């Protein structure tokens, strides 16, 4: 079955089963490998993308759910890594192993798009959907605070 949607500003049509997970379509068919597989159950956030401007676990989103909609992956957040969250991530030296970072950044960008000046409690609450096994949570919070100030 052919399913059409928009990814990172580009119209695409993919041949796949409608219940195929968006994560695997992005990674395997569209070669957008910045979105990571973590747990496969929507508990870690490594696979976070935006669907019509709202964050979504791509491992739990079926392809038919994005038909006719707009998907943004980490590759589409900004073409030159100039998004305030990406710049703050580097300034605060957030990445350690880096595996969860694309999902963390997508969640942080979602938060700041909806709440431009979040409190620390709002940041912690919003980011609780994303796990970092390296424990860089203090740096993540500082980066989001910095991005909010610099945006």
Automatic annotation (TrEMBL):
<keyword id="KW-0560">Oxidoreductase</keyword>
<feature type="domain" description="2Fe-2S ferredoxin-type">
    <location>
        <begin position="1"/>
        <end position="77"/>
    </location>
</feature>
<dbReference type="GO" id="GO:0016491">
    <property type="term" value="F:oxidoreductase activity"/>
</dbReference>
<keyword id="KW-0408">Iron</keyword>
<dbReference type="InterPro" id="IPR006058">
    <property type="entry name" value="2Fe2S_fd_BS"/>
</dbReference>
<dbReference type="InterPro" id="IPR051452">
    <property type="entry name" value="Diverse_Oxidoreductases"/>
</dbReference>
<dbReference type="InterPro" id="IPR012675">
    <property type="entry name" value="Beta-grasp_dom_sf"/>
</dbReference>
<dbReference type="InterPro" id="IPR036010">
    <property type="entry name" value="2Fe-2S_ferredoxin-like_sf"/>
</dbReference>
<protein>
    <submittedName>
        <fullName>(2Fe-2S)-binding protein</fullName>
    </submittedName>
</protein>
<dbReference type="InterPro" id="IPR001041">
    <property type="entry name" value="2Fe-2S_ferredoxin-type"/>
</dbReference>
<dbReference type="Pfam" id="PF00111">
    <property type="entry name" value="Fer2"/>
</dbReference>
<keyword id="KW-0001">2Fe-2S</keyword>
<dbReference type="Pfam" id="PF01799">
    <property type="entry name" value="Fer2_2"/>
</dbReference>
<dbReference type="InterPro" id="IPR002888">
    <property type="entry name" value="2Fe-2S-bd"/>
</dbReference>
<dbReference type="GO" id="GO:0051537">
    <property type="term" value="F:2 iron, 2 sulfur cluster binding"/>
</dbReference>
<keyword id="KW-0411">Iron-sulfur</keyword>
<dbReference type="InterPro" id="IPR036884">
    <property type="entry name" value="2Fe-2S-bd_dom_sf"/>
</dbReference>
<keyword id="KW-0479">Metal-binding</keyword>
<dbReference type="GO" id="GO:0046872">
    <property type="term" value="F:metal ion binding"/>
</dbReference>
